[in-house]
Amino acid sequence: PRSAAEFLPDRKTLKTLAAAADHCKGCELYKDATQTVFGEGSKTARIVLVGEQPGDQEDLEGHPFVGPAGRVLDEALAEAGIDREDVYVTNAVKHFHWEPRGERRLHKKPPARAMSACRPWLEAEVAVLQPEVVVCLGATAAQSVVGREAKVTRDRGRIMRSALCRQTLMTWHPSAILRAPDATARERMRMELVNDLRTAFQAMS
Ligand code: URA
Ligand code: SF4
After folding, report:
1. pLDDT per residue over 134-179, tens digit each?
2. What pLDDT sits at residue 163?
3. What is the DSSP letter of 179?
4. Judging by beta carbons within 10 Å of its beta carbon (0-12, 13-18, 19+), is residue 147 exposed, middle or buried?
5. What is the pLDDT of residue 84?
6. So what's the pLDDT on residue 1?
7. Ligand 2 neighbours (beta carbon < 6 A)
8. To test ligand 1's pocket by mutation, which of 58, 143, 173 has the most ligand atoms within 8 angstroms of CB?
9. CB-based contacts of 26: which residues, under 8 Å, 6+ apart?
10. Distance of CA 143 to CAs 2, 80, 110, 119, 182, Å?
11. Which sign, positive or negative, has the C-alpha torsion 167, 162, 128, 26?
């Protein structure tokens, strides 16, 4: 298989998509991962949040953003006053990509071919949900959704148009906040994430 496209079901709902994605072999990433981690959230969500790929804990539990990055995201959403019902959370790539580092599994950036192979799932999720805003968390999501030229440091916090959604915005990945060099940088990025989420929220009609 050259992409996820041939694994997509004919009848597309969030349920049929998630069930079909369980068996996706659209690229080689499924081989070393525990399971597919599909998007989750309200089917009436008007904001879709797109991360990079599941992390170690997400891979084991089968749900997006349930690890340390997920806690940063949950707190930022709460601080921005965004209700869980308003969001659907997913990833640009649905399988965990990693390399062994001693006993641990170290996250590895997904290869470009996995990003394009996996995009049909994201496109289908957005087509079903028809959200008012798509928020890209970090560079990988931004590059998958907006294009290769997207740059989070330069473009974050602005509503722009993408092939996926008329209103698309990019912001920091919660993991980038956890990796910030010091407490000052961490707090600044955290506040920028909250602000950018507020911008997304205010863009809803
Ligand atoms: N990081 C991501 O990009 N996605 C997750 O689901 C978890 C961590
Ligand atoms: Fe399919 Fe995406 Fe997993 Fe590759 S990463 S096997 S395209 S679900």
Report:
1. 999 999 999 999 999 999 999 999 999 999 999 999 999 999 999 9
2. 97
3. T
4. exposed
5. 83
6. 78
7. 4, 21, 24-27, 29-30, 36, 93-95, 114, 117-118, 121
8. 58
9. 1, 2, 3, 4, 5, 6, 7, 117, 118, 120
10. 20, 25, 12, 11, 27
11. negative
2 alpha carbon to ligand 1 midpoint, in Å? 24
Mean pLDDT of the chain: 97
Return the CA Rg of the chain. 16
Using alpha carbons, select from 16, 103, 21 the residue that is nearest to residue 54: 21
Average pLDDT along the chain, 205 residues, taken 10 residues at a time: 95 98 98 98 97 98 97 97 94 98 95 97 98 98 96 97 98 97 98 98 94
Separation CA 202–CA 139 (nearest Å): 23
Q: Is 64 exposed, middle or buried (0-12, 13-18, 19+ CB in 10 A)?
A: buried
Domains of the chain: 4-202 (3.40.470.10)
Rounded CA-CA distance 67/5 in Å is: 29
* Closest ligand by atom to 33 CA: 2
Mutational test site, ligand 1, from 49, 61, 175, 193, max ligand atoms within 8 Å of CB: 175
The burial class, CB within 10 Å (0-12 / 13-18 / 19+), for 181 is exposed
* Ligand 1 atom with the shortest distance to the CA of 92: 3
